[in-house]
Structure formats: structure tokens, C-alpha cells
């Protein structure tokens, strides 16, 4: 029958031969039916069907009895063939064979019906988590949101219209929660709008492209129609469409554009978009207008959206239109004259960006400087419709100075003003956060490293202190160096504080090594044609070469010195006298007020001999009042020795606190990059616990006494309203506030920073204060907040919210209360072991509706959880606590469904369908909280250690001890949590190469190990501690979820594991589930399925 050739099988084993034979029989019967009916038969020639002959149904020959007989046979054959097909496909074994064919072919049937109990809270929590500017992401939010959308579409059994609609609504809620009135050094509203108007449309575009590539032509328009429907239905959410005050102008502009297009169409004006530069005549624009324009800009929909009912607001009599400065630029106006206007007006098209880029590449030096500043202005922060193009041009311009060539110092110095403008432009809080959301942290780090290497090796032109606002060797180096350090946790030790009690890494901190590894792996992936076509960002192929830290010897030397200083105290013997000379010279300058008889020096015992007969290195002046004109790397190498000397002198009373802070401030003014070394050293010293606390009396050290009681009271108020009732003040009011010396020095130094410099330095200072507050056992965060609130009163609310996260860094009781409060706000409270349904619950109560002035100290528990979950001291405890709450909720649902109550009350029982929906909501929330708290490593721990331990544990409170119905619900809930958490991280099927390299590549081993554990328990090799009912419901539910939702996971599991698990299921009389599991094992499991079925059929026959 030539089955191998017909179906394209290279190796036809027994199992494949059987199932393809059954398929061929069914196909031949269907072909005969179609042929007898006179319908087009496209496969007869493929099968070489010898049972059919071409009959002339339209002939005009004589109508004799032979023709009547043949017609009667033909009709009878049709009925008989249909009956045979029906009987064949009704047979259970034949059905399994045909399912095997279906599951192992490339045909895609991904149409889902509307899901019941859909839960989209992972969208909201992911977007809110992405707004935390303290934590940068190694992968693009576009990639992550794309995979999360595909996962939730499958798990919720939803259509793409429902999925897109949930995306838009989550994005709108994110914007409404934006704390616009809150001031502080954090990502503001523009980052939230970037998520709604750039990241989400790009994710949708990726999904649409993938679906179009998979589907036939008739289905292409279907997904576009679903997208349009998801947009049109947004008009029902008028409360979410109200634009924040900062975006009213942009919304009005978008509405006016649509109105003018329709007006010009009606009047026959060929210039459809003419006079669309002013929005003064339209006052009714909303967020839908901005979303539609973002979709049009990315070719997701076309301008037919302007014809949607109620979309266009009629034009009123308008004032004269104001010309856009970008139009003036494209028409030939000088760039330098338009610079200020262009910096505050985002570009509206890629053509305008290309015009600006031409100035940056081939213009005069003044034009290059102006173009660099404009690119990093409003177009980068607010040009949402073309933001990905702006980011790409900025990086392309920055990369034009690479690769680093030997002897090219003059070229870098020549372009120093332009480089200074570019680096400063991408260093703002919002700009760094936007680059992080586009997943470009590794690429930016690789571009900054050679700039740090070259400018750190050049000596400054004079002895004056560095001015951040002016281009100089030190200012460019400091900007590049501090920007590079903000991209990774430079002050964290490589191993300390990263191990769980099981010896497994549970923290996911970015390191420089990891960033380079990620960047190089991405470069290798982009060299593949199929990846490069789908990539948003395309850089010069010459820049795709691997980057290694060994290529930058000066940076490498500092990197390892910094790690050594963090890991241990400075060595008492240092064999480089030149570095000690520099350190001693810096000490003389910053401690020039110290009497000569008490002058400080670095390690005088070791330097007295080594410095005899040696002269200072070039660039070190003999005059102690002049700063050395040394390359920045030489200064940075000496700073740890300076810091050890001054901190020790201050601790022993040989240096006053005022002189210490003044000296450190002078050092930071001279070389701003030195602030990183100061933060790193002080952060490391506070973890050693060897420094005595100092009195914050207002004389030697600044006093927080004036504001500390108010700050503590407001922190307690924020926590109480989030459901956390603890007292953060453990000291009596009469006791003077104290801080360990390194924290006191760092916070005193930070409050001396000028506010105009703070945007450059906050990323470094903020990280240092965070690590000091979390690493020290001393309750210091409220004191730090009180000191800072005295310095910048307008940041008071921001400071209170930031300090409210500190109790969760050391107090597991607070963590437990916060976790329970999250479940209560989302699902409602539990009363006497039963669910209590209240009106106020869901996403709005979990994450909050808005942060406004009227409720400035009301923070939703979910919002507080997302801001503090990365700082939890023990992620194992977090996981176990979340599972406890899940079990409690499952038991409450069982009680709600229980019929063990008086007959007249049974009508109040919850139906099982509603309970199933609630189990999914509980599980989705729990899984999302787990993923954000510990990421991939915690989910691995959940699969391999925590959940197996829970199932094996015995005791009074063991699983399955609360009754039969409760035990069933416990197993179901745990299975759902496990599947949701894994799917949220790994995806449900094939993922993009960039995503797979970080997340999905770990899936196979982890899932296989967990299924192997289940198989060993079913074989009796491991003794359970939980109840049998809980175990059975857990296994059956989890395997059923694998079969129904993530069959791609089963394909990756070893055949031996699947066979063991299937054997155990058959012993439980779950043969159908066992067959379904094996069916989805891919080609490797076909023979096992066939043999199993034939054995089953033989047993039936013998009986």
C-alpha cells in the first residue's frame, strides 16, 4: 500500500504501520463516497483507487435498465460506505488510532470556544511588576507578554478576541493605577503608557503574525476580525477610557486626526491628513483613540477604524492650526533652531526619525549634538507609536562608535559631546526602564563597556572637579560607568544571600557575566534567518560578534576587585605601591582639615617600606590640595583603601563625621563614578556586622527626630490598610535613633547630593540604601525615610510607600499576613471555613484602582506584594505559605459544595461547575504570586522539592485529613497550581528562541522528574504521607491537565516515564486517561499505544 511514501514516513515501525493502515482505509471509504456522489475527489490519484471508475453522470445515452441498475448500486454503495465509516470510527481502538494520527501531524486546530471562569489576573500582575523600576528585566516584555498571552488563551479555553480584550483592559487598568500625583525617583506614567501603547500592540502583532503563518487564507481575516472586535468592545469600559491629565492632549490629537480624515474624505480633499497638527478643536479624545492609533501605526488595523460607530467626534470651529516642529524640520528648517521644540514634541513617523538620524550621522558637530539630545527626549519617552524605532535608532547611533579599535582615542574624544548627550539621555529613570521593557539591557551593557574602558583610561585635562552637565573625560566615563552598573546588581555578592535551605539558587539577580552570556546567545540566535526576520531590533551584523569581559582589561580588573571587596575585607598587604600612593594622596585631599600630627594614611606599616625610594606615579601632584590628573580606573582602584581608612578613623574618633561626609562629597564631585565604589564598599561592610551604631543626635549626624514619629505612624497605616498588622517601631520613644556607621555615612552622603544631579545618581544610591536596609539586622528603613523626607518634602508619599516594603525583608509574619490579604482581596474573606462573597473583590481590590491624593496612603495588598516580593528573606516559606492558603481555600470550596447539611439548606450549595471555576482562579493567583516571588528557580523548587515534600509529609495537618470531599478539592487545587505556575514560566508549547533560552529550556528535565516521582509512588517505591484520596485526585487532575492543555510537555517526557505512569493509571482503572497520555507522547510512543490497545482487545476477546 506504499504507506511510507504516501504519508511521508522515513521509518515505518509496527505502530505507525497499523495506525496509517487504519487511516488509509477510512480515507479510501470517504473517497469512494465522494466519487459515487459525483463530488470532486482530490485524493483518488494518490491512493490509486482501483475500485472506482469514471462514470458519465451527465451523458445523453439511452436510459436502459442497465443504467438504472448501476444507479441503484451506486446509491446502495454510498449508504453502505457511510455505515462502514460510522462503525469503524465508533470503535474505541480505531478512535485511538485516528487520534494518534491527529496528534502527530503538523495540522493545527487551535480554535477554542469561550472559556468559562476565565482568569486574566496574570496579565495585571505581570504589567504591574514590570513597572517596578528597581528591577530590570533580561528579556523583553514583548516576548514575555506574547508567551503569557498564548498560555492564558489555552488555559482559559478562550478565543483570541477574549484574550486581546483582556490584554487591553489590563493595560488600561495599569494606566489608571498610575500614581501621577506622586513625585519621586521612579518610573512615571510614561512607562505605563509604553506598556499599553507599545508593548501590548507589539505583542499582539507577534501573535497575529504567528497565527497568520499557521492558518489558511480564510482564517487570516478571522483573527484580524477578532482583534477589531476586541477594540470595539472597549467602548463599554468608559471608566477605563478616561485619559489621565498628562495624556489628554495626545488623546485629543488622535481624535482630531480621525475627524479630519473623515472630513477631508467627505469634502474630496486629497490631503487626507492635512491640518491634523492641532488638537484645540477636539476635547473628547480618550484612551481608545490612542490605542487605535498605536494599532494602525503597526499595521494591525487600517483607517477603516475611523468609521466605527461613535468613534469620530465632529469637528468644531477651530483656531488656526499650530505647525509641528517636525514638519518644519522635514521641510528644511535648521535643526539647531528647532532643538528645544523637538525635544518636547515626540516624532510622529519613522520618516521624521530618519531625517533626524541623517543629521546625527553626517551633520556638523553642533547638529550631531542637537540630534542626540532630541532623540533621547520626548520621542524616546512619549513617541509610543514609533517607540521601538526610536530605541533602535538610539542604539544604532550609540553602536556606531563600536567596535573599539586600538589607537582610536582621538576619535572618541572628538565625539565626546555627542556621546555625553546620548549616554545622559538614556540614563534617566524612565529611559532606563523603557530600555529594560524592550529587553535591551544586555545590548546596552555591551555597548557601554568599551566606552568605559576607553574613557576610563584617559587622563582628565585639568585638576578641577567633574561637572555632569558638561562633556569631559570624567563626565563621559562616569555617565557610562554608572549607567552600566545600574543594569546589574554590582553591589551583591556572587553567592551570598542567594541560597535556599535546600542549597538551590532562588534569587534571580542580573550579573555582568549573565548579561554578557545572554547578549552573546542572542547574537548567535539573530544570525539565524528565521529569528532575524521576526526580531524587532536589527543592528549592524558586524556588532553581533561575542563580547567578553576579558576584552576590557581595566573594567575586568575593577570587576574582580569589587567582587573581592564584597566577599571579604581588604588584604593587609597590597603589592602595588602606586595604588597606595594614589590612595594616600586622595586621603590628604579629602582630610585636609585634619591636624598634621593626626594625618591619615593607608596601611602605614606596609606602605612605609614599600614607598621608600619610590616616587609617586605620573599625574599625582605633590600639592595635597590638587586632585590627581589620573585616569579614572587608577582612581577607582585606590578608593576602597581610602574608604577603609576614613571609616576606621571615624569609628575611632580620629575623623569627625562632618569631615568624613565632606571628604566623601568632594571625592564624588571630583569623580562621580567613585560613588559606585563608595556604595559597594559600604553595602559590603554593613553585611559583616562589625560596625557599632552611631547616635543621630543632630550634631555629629543628622537627626530624624522631627519626622520619625509621623513616618512610622504612616508606615503602620499603609500596612494596616493592606491587611498587615505589625508594629515597625521596636524601640522606646525616649531612645535616640541610631544607625550602624556605614549606613549613617551612606545616608548622610546621599542627602548632600544636589537634586539636579540626583537623576544620574539615584540608581546607584537607591541600590546602596536598599541593600544596607535589607542586609542589616538593625531596623533602619524608617529612619532613612525620615531623613529623606526632611530633605525632599514633596517626595514624602513616595518615601512612605518605599519604606512600607521594609518589614517584608526580615519578618515572615508580615509576609504571611500580606499573602493572605492578597487572596482575601481577590477572592473574598473566609468565615467559619466557608467562602464569604462580598461586592469588593477581584483585580481592582487586589492591585488597587488608582493612587490619588484623596487616598494617598491606601495601598492595595497586591500592589504592595508586587513591590516587595523580590525582597522576601525566604522564598521557601513564601511557597509553603501560598500552598497553605490554597489548601484552606480548597477546603472552603469543598464545604460550600458539601451536601452534608439540612435538606432545606441544600439549595445554597455551590454547584461543582462554579467550584471548578473558583479553583482555577485560586490557582492562577497562587501561581502568579509564586512566579513573581522566585521566578524560574522557585518553580523548579516547587516541582522538585516543595510539593513532593508536602505530599510525603505525615502528621495531624497532613493533606487528606479533612474528609473525602475536602481531600478531592485539595488534590485538584494543588494540580492546578502546579500546572499554572509551570505554564506561566515555560509556556504551553513551542516558544521563541530568546524566551526558550532562559525559560523553556529547563522545562523538559523538571517535568520529567516530577512525573518520575509520581510513577515511583504509584509503583509503591515511595510511601506517601498524605491521604489516598488527595493523592489520587492530584495525579488524575494533573495528568488530565497535561493531556488537555499542555500536550507539548508530554512530548518531552521520556517514554519509560510515560509507560510507568500509564501502567499505574490502568491499575486505578483509568485506561482512557492512560491511553490519552501515551497518545500525546509523540512518535516514540506510537508502538506502545498500539501494543497496549491490541493487548486490551485480545483480553476482551478471550473473555
UniProtKB/TrEMBL annotation:
<keyword id="KW-0732">Signal</keyword>
<feature type="signal peptide">
    <location>
        <begin position="1"/>
        <end position="28"/>
    </location>
</feature>
<dbReference type="GO" id="GO:0016592">
    <property type="term" value="C:mediator complex"/>
</dbReference>
<dbReference type="InterPro" id="IPR039638">
    <property type="entry name" value="MED33A/B"/>
</dbReference>
<dbReference type="GO" id="GO:2000762">
    <property type="term" value="P:regulation of phenylpropanoid metabolic process"/>
</dbReference>
<protein>
    <recommendedName>
        <fullName>Mediator of RNA polymerase II transcription subunit 33A</fullName>
    </recommendedName>
</protein>
Amino acid at each position: 500500500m506504499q504507506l511510507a511514501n504516501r504519508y511521508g514516513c522515513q521509518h515505518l515501525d509496527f505502530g505507525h504501520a497499523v495506525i496509517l493502515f487504519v487511516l488509509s482505509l477510512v480515507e479510501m471509504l470517504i473517497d469512494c463516497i465522494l466519487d459515487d456522489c459525483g463530488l470532486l475527489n482530490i485524493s483518488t490519484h494518490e491512493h490509486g483507487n482501483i475500485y472506482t471508475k469514471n462514470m458519465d453522470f451527465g451523458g445523453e445515452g439511452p436510459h436502459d435498465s442497465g443504467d438504472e441498475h448501476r444507479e441503484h448500486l451506486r446509491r446502495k454503495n454510498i449508504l453502505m460506505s457511510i455505515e462502514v465509516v460510522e462503525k469503524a470510527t465508533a470503535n474505541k481502538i480505531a478512535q485511538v488510532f485516528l487520534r494518534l494520527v491527529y496528534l502527530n501531524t503538523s495540522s493545527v486546530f487551535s480554535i477554542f470556544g469561550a472559556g468559562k471562569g476565565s482568569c486574566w489576573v496574570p496579565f495585571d500582575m505581570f504589567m504591574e511588576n514590570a513597572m517596578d523600576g528597581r528591577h530590570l528585566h533580561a528579556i523583553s516584555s514583548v516576548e514575555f507578554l506574547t508567551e503569557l498571552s498564548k498560555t492564558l488563551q489555552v488555559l482559559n479555553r478562550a478565543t483570541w478576541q477574549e484574550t486581546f480584550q483582556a490584554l487591553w483592559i489590563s493595560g488600561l487598568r495599569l494606566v489608571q493605577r498610575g500614581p501621577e500625583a506622586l513625585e519621586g525617583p521612579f518610573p512615571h506614567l510614561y512607562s505605563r503608557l509604553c506598556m499599553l501603547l507599545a508593548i501590548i500592540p507589539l505583542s499582539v502583532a507577534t501573535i497575529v503574525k504567528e497565527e497568520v503563518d499557521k492558518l489558511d487564507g480564510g482564517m487570516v481575516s478571522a483573527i484580524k476580525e477578532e482583534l477589531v472586535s476586541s477594540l470595539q468592545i472597549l467602548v463599554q469600559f468608559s471608566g477605563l477610557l478616561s485619559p489621565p491629565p498628562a495624556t489628554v492632549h495626545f488623546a485629543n490629537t488622535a481624535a482630531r486626526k480621525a475627524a479630519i480624515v473623515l472630513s477631508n474624505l467627505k469634502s474630496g480633499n486629497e490631503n487626507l491628513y492635512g491640518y491634523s497638527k492641532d488638537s484645540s478643536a477636539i476635547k473628547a479624545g480618550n484612551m481608545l483613540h490612542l490605542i487605535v492609533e498605536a494599532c494602525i501605526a503597526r499595521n494591525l488595523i487600517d483607517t477603516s477604524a475611523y468609521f466605527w460607530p461613535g468613534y469620530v467626534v465632529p469637528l468644531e470651529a477651530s483656531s488656526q492650526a499650530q505647525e509641528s516642529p517636525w514638519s518644519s524640520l522635514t521641510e528644511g528648517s535648521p535643526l539647531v533652531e528647532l532643538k528645544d521644540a523637538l525635544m518636547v514634541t515626540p516624532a510622529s513617523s519613522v520618516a521624521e526619525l530618519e531625517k533626524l538620524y541623517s543629521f546625527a550621522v553626517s551633520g556638523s558637530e553642533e547638529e550631531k549634538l542637537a540630534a542626540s539630545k532630541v532623540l533621547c527626549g520626548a520621542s524616546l519617552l512619549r513617541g509610543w507609536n514609533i517607540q521601538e524605532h526610536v530605541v533602535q535608532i538610539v542604539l544604532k547611533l550609540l553602536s556606531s562608535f563600536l567596535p573599539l579599535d586600538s589607537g582610536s582615542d582621538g576619535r572618541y574624544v572628538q565625539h565626546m559631546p555627542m556621546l555625553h548627550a546620548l549616554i545622559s539621555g538614556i540614563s534617566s529613570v524612565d529611559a532606563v526602564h523603557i530600555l529594560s521593557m524592550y529587553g535591551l539591557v544586555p545590548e546596552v551593557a555591551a555597548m557601554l563597556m568599551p566606552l568605559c574602558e576607553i574613557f576610563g583610561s584617559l587622563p582628565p585635562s585639568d585638576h578641577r572637579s567633574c561637572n555632569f552637565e558638561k562633556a569631559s573625560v570624567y563626565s563621559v566615563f562616569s555617565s557610562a560607568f554608572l549607567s552600566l552598573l545600574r543594569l546589574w546588581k554590582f553591589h551583591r555578592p556572587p553567592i551570598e544571600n542567594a541560597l535556599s535551605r535546600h542549597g538551590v539558587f532562588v534569587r534571580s539577580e542580573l550579573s555582568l557575566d549573565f548579561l554578557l552570556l545572554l547578549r552573546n546567545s542572542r547574537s548567535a540566535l539573530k544570525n539565524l534567518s528565521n529569528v532575524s526576520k521576526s526580531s524587532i531590533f536589527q543592528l549592524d551584523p558586524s556588532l553581533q560578534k561575542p563580547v567578553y569581559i576579558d576584552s576590557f582589561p581595566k573594567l575586568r580588573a575593577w570587576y574582580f576587585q569589587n567582587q573581592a571587596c564584597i566577599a571579604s575585607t581588604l588584604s593587609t598587604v597590597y603589592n602595588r605601591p602606586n595604588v597606595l600612593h594614589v590612595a594616600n594622596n586622595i586621603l590628604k585631599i579629602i582630610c585636609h582639615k585634619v591636624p598634621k600630627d593626626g594625618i591619615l594614611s593607608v596601611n602605614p606599616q606596609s606602605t612605609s617600606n614599600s614607598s621608600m625610594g619610590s616616587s609617586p606615579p605620573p599625574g599625582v601632584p605633590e600639592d595635597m590640595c590638587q586632585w590627581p590628573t589620573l585616569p579614572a580606573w587608577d582612581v577607582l582602584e585606590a578608593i576602597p583603601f581610602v574608604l577603609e581608612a576614613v571609616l576606621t578613623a571615624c569609628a575611632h574618633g580620629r575623623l569627625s563625621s562632618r569631615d568624613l561626609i565632606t571628604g566623601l562629597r568632594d571625592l564624588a564631585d571630583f569623580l562621580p563614578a567613585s560613588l559606585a565604589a563608595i556604595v559597594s564598599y559600604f553595602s559590603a561592610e554593613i553585611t559583616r556586622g562589625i560596625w557599632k551604631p552611631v547616635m543621630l543626635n543632630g550634631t555629629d549626624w543628622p537627626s530624624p527626630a522631627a519626622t520619625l514619629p509621623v513616618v512610622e505612624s504612616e508606615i503602620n497605616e499603609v500596612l494596616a490598610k493592606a491587611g498587615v498588622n505589625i508594629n515597625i517601631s521596636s524601640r522606646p520613644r525616649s531612645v535616640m535613633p541610631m544607625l550602624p556607621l556605614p549606613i549613617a555615612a551612606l545616608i548622610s552622603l546621599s542627602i548632600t547630593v544636589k537634586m539636579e544631579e540626583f537623576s544620574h545618581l539615584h540608581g546607584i544610591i537607591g541600590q546602596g540604601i536598599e541593600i544596607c536596609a535589607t542586609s542589616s539586622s538593625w531596623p533602619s528603613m524608617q529612619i532613612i525615610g525620615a531623613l529623606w523626607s526632611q530633605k525632599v518634602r514633596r517626595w514624602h508619599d513616595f518615601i512612605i510607600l518605599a519604606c512600607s516594603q521594609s518589614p517584608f525583608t526580615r519578618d515572615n509574619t508580615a509576609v504571611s499576613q500580606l499573602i493572605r490579604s492578597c487572596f482575601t482581596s481577590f477572592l473574598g474573606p473566609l468565615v467559619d471555613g466557608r467562602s464569604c462573597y462580598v461586592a469588593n473583590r477581584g483585580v481592582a481590590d487586589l492591585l488597587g484602582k488608582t493612587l490619588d491624593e484623596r487616598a494617598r496612603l491606601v495601598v492595595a495588598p497586591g500592589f504592595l506584594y508586587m513591590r516587595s516580593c523580590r525582597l522576601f528573606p525566604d522564598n521557601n516559606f513564601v511557597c509553603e505559605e501560598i500552598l497553605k492558603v490554597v489548601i484552606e481555600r480548597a477546603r472552603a470550596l469543598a464545604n460550600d459544595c458539601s451536601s452534608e447539611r439540612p435538606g432545606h439548606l441544600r439549595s445554597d450549595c455551590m454547584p461543582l461547575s462554579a467550584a471548578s471555576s473558583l479553583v482555577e482562579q485560586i490557582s492562577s493567583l497562587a501561581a502568579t504570586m509564586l512566579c513573581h516571588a522566585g521566578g524560574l528557580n522557585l518553580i523548579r523548587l516547587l516541582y522538585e522539592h516543595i510539593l513532593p515534600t508536602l505530599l510525603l509529609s505525615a502528621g495531624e495537618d497532613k493533606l487528606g485529613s479533612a474528609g473525602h470531599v475536602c481531600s478531592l478539592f485539595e488534590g485538584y487545587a494543588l494540580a492546578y497550581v502546579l500546572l499554572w505556575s509551570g505554564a506561566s514560566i515555560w509556556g504551553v508549547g513551542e516558544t521563541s528562541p530568546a524566551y526558550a533560552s532562559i525559560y523553556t529550556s529547563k522545562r523538559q528535565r523538571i517535568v520529567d522528574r516530577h512525573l518520575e516521582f509520581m510513577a515511583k509512588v504509584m509503583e509503591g517505591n515511595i510511601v506517601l504521607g498524605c491521604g489516598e484520596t488527595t493523592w489520587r485526585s492530584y495525579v488524575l487532575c494533573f495528568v488530565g491537565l497535561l493531556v488537555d492543555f499542555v500536550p507539548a510537555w508530554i512530548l518531552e517526557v521520556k517514554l519509560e516515564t510515560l509507560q510507568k505512569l500509564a501502567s499505574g493509571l490502568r491499575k486505578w482503572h483509568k485506561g482512557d486517561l492512560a491511553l490519552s497520555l501515551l497518545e500525546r507522547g509523540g512518535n516514540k510512543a506510537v508502538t506502545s499505544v498500539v501494543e497496549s490497545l491490541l493487548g486490551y482487545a485480545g483480553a476482551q476477546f478471550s473473555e
